Amino acid sequence: MKDQITIRGARVHNLKNVDLAIPHNQLVVFTGVSGSGKSSLAYDTIFAEGQRRYIESLSPYARQFLGQMKPADVDEIIGLAPSISIDQKALSHNPRSTVGTLTEIYDYLRVLYARLGEVYCPKCGRKIDKLALDEMIDIIKNRAKELNEEYVTILAPVVVDRKGEYYQLLYDYLNLGFSEARIDGKFHSLHEKVKLARHSKHSIDIVIDKVMINDESRLSEAVENAINYTNGLVVALFNNNSPLTKGKKIKSSPYQREAGKGWPKISATTPKPLLGKEGITLEFLLSSNWTCPHDGFAFPEVEPRLFSFNSPHGACEKCHGLGKLELWENKKKLAEEGQEVGEYRNQYEKAVELCQACEGQRLRPESLSVRVSGKNIAQVSAISIEQAYDFFITYHNKMTARQKDIAENVVIEIADRLDFLLQVGLNYLSLSREAETLSGGEAQRIRLGSQIGSHLSKTLYVLDEPTIGLHERDTERLIKTLKSLKEQGNSVIIVEHDERTIRASDFFVDLGPLAGSQGGQVVAIGETQELLKKNNPQKSLTLEYLRGERVIETASHRRTATSEAIKIIGARANNLKNVQVDIPLRKMVCLTGVSGSGKSSLLYDVLYKNVQKIKANPPLAAPTSSAFRATSFRAGEDYRKRELEDVAKILGTEYINRVVVVDQSPIGRTPRSNPATYTGIFTPVREFFALLPESRERGYTLSRFSFNRPGGRCEACAGAGSNLIEMHFLPAVTVECEVCHGKRFNRETLQVKYKGKNISEVLALTIDEAIGYFDSHYQITDKLKVLQEVGLGYLQLGQSATTLSGGEAQRIKLARELTHTLGRKTLYLLDEPTVGLHYHDIELLLKVLNKLIDRQNSIAVIEHNMHIIHAADYVIDLGPEGGDRGGYLVAKGTPEEIINNDKSVTGKYLKEYLK
Q: Looking at the record's lineage, which domain of life comes first (predicted)?
């Protein structure tokens, strides 16, 4: 049907021949437990096929730049619209990418500043007005008098640092009666044929006239002609016959033009010596647009490129538009006596410092000297989005009729795009914020804000958990934004676990019933409000939680208070306002607050960084896994003497042995990493196989059963099970190894079996199956049961780390901690551990966290999920807003105490869950 997307026989990943129909122009939510197949259906089937069909509709010439896309493993999809994916992937790792450039707001700012900006002199700070013709004549005559010159050559810079051949341009000026031009610093007759490289930048000045200074009418005519041909620019060129400078070396100005480099900075008072036919010459640039009458400083062009830190015309000359300098410190590790020279090692440490030339503002002084309503473009970019929105609304209200004629549409577009970012809860960000510092959730919402501003219709949008990182209050705003996207005539599919968003959707698709091989089926589908009714016959795990038939179990009472706590005094990192707070130990402490309120600053920039310094004793061993963040220390430094950063005091660290961050980063970035290798289960499994009678007869050792070492692995694929084949003009293809057929080991190794299975077949077992397989081997099953307890029984032992979700990776890390933390008094820091987790998964996560606490450990977690906040023993609420208006301690205490605090926004929403 035309009013719906019909899918038949979807089999991507764990999907089991799924058939379903999704209505167009609706807000559709896909939900289900982690690993149930939501993303496989939404992204790898619906979006992937929509994108592939769009690319197939393009010309062969366009397709060659976009690569080949395999059809999704599905029998049929009907009614599919052009698809746009808005996921949580990092926007860019380019340090030049900012929130402003990604949303194109900065492009509009550049246009606004070029058209309506007020120009101020970078030298004296006075406002610069345009030079009239008479003022130009007076400046030329005064310079001639200073240099004792009788003649001046007037040139018109018609091309400044631009690519092209310009044959026709030079011919046109010859027909106008001009006979000479200066091209890239050299004079040429226009009668001769000058060949210019098409793809190189050139500067061309047409010689208008060489006139006597006393012939004012002819001088005026020459200057006026130059102005007309160049839109306001005039070059005055003098022979240097002055007795003051003749025979003396003249210092070259830093504000000079060099061939092929344009006019980076121009000063009418500082001459540039040029070697011409008649000896040393001096030249000055004048402008009918912007020239300072007090010190002669002239802007060559006030164009949008002047405000681009990605262009040599606008970028700071010192840092080239980065706003910072990367310094590399070379350290030589001296070899011991007797070692060869080849064994010397150079160690380089990277340090980043603020560029002192532009003070981190990325732009050259001329660019920063143009202001709109008293602020330059860097200052507007540095304030929060909320402040920027207010700034432009106020500016729009004060615009004159002439200003509105010129750029009212630009100001309205800027304000609209800022408003879209406010709607998705990004009020605390600034336009100058680097893209690589954004979280996945922030990056996704920036894309979402940009899409709303594009005003597309009849498009299918697919979003992956857009509520990540959002407070309940901001989630309400986001829902309004998603509905406005739908009201523009679009279809919106969301993969989501947030209860408020699910209840606000129009259509509901629940996948399951469980994860992995036990999932991949549609267990409930229909209009959301109908499915939420208790008398609806459709049943699913998600609906049970939503209908209140099943609840996330929490402790019947809070853990009692103890005297042990980490006391933070005077925290001031980022936007924190001298915060003083206690973090009770042997409890679960939850940090809450709206986005940008200072939660991460308190937990990581203050607590984690400084406790690491306090607890570190040389030598500090670096963590063996990327799962844990570590502070880098310089070699030979006494860590105990390092001063605390962004805090006055931290007390109580003697109550803990270490501090560990457990995040959702991958447990490995190659297919060789898997749950068995990461948790250490694979080592006892290999030891077990090495002790089997057949292995001992053959002389096989532990290394024989490793796919990372020669001997037992398949050498055709080096133990990977597959090979990467380069296709030159086509995308590389990964194919199963023809020798081992994906089993990773050679034939002799696979002949060793236990209970009818070889080492490769054991790695293919799920964790649930492996517990039964190794039922009498407690060294293996004890670790497997921990993985089962955190809800990962459906994963295969040898499942590639690259296929695991963030939530799965985090729970694997927690499981590994559970296997070796007894009595270690560790403080665990977690940032939104419920990201990507279903209600059922949250219940399992809480059990794991409580187990860690029962073993005398402590948990401090940043969280927006009300189920976790409800289950916490102690809550620290920061706010009251984000950015500059945040950073205060709003409330602290048990969840019951938080809901009774009228100042707490979190308490308002938490009250609904404590009823």
A: Bacteria
Same domain, 173 and 264: yes
pLDDT means per 10 residues in the chain (915 residues)?
A: 88 94 96 89 93 84 73 93 79 83 94 94 82 89 88 92 90 93 91 89 93 93 93 81 36 34 38 41 77 68 91 92 77 40 45 88 94 96 95 96 94 94 88 85 81 85 88 88 91 94 97 87 96 91 93 81 91 94 96 91 94 68 36 39 83 92 82 90 95 95 93 92 70 79 94 95 93 92 90 88 78 85 81 86 88 92 94 95 90 94 92 77
> Which CA distances in Å does 881 have to 142, 473, 576?
59, 11, 12
Residue 474 and residue 424: Cα distance in Å, rounded? 7
Q: What is the dihedral of CA 375, 378, 383, 388, to 10 degrees?
A: 60
Angle at 348 (CA atoms; ends 342, 349), nearest 5 degrees: 160
Contact predicate 604/662, CB 8 Å: no
Number of other CB atoms surrounding residue 755 within 10 Å? 8
Count how many domains the chain has: 5
Rounded Cα distance, 290 and 120, in Å: 9
Q: Is residue 614 part of a domain?
A: yes
Strand-pair partners of 735: 723
Domain that holds residue 400: 95-115+304-330+348-437
| Residue 318 exposure: Cα atoms within 13 Å on the Cβ side | 17
Please give the angle made by the CA atoms of 902, 904 and 910, to the nearest 5 degrees. 100
Q: 533 Cβ partners below 8 Å, 6+ apart?
A: none
DSSP 80: P
Close Cβ partners of 373 (under 8 Å, ≥ 6 residues apart): 391, 394, 395, 398
Amino acid letter, residue 687:
E
Report how far residue 689's alpha carbon sits from residue 706's, in angstroms, rounded to the nearest whole number. Answer: 11
Domain final residue pick, 744, 767, 802: 802
Q: Which helix (H) or strand (E) holds 188?
A: strand 186-189
Whose tokens are 């609304």? That residue is 393
CATH number of 279's domain: 3.30.190.20
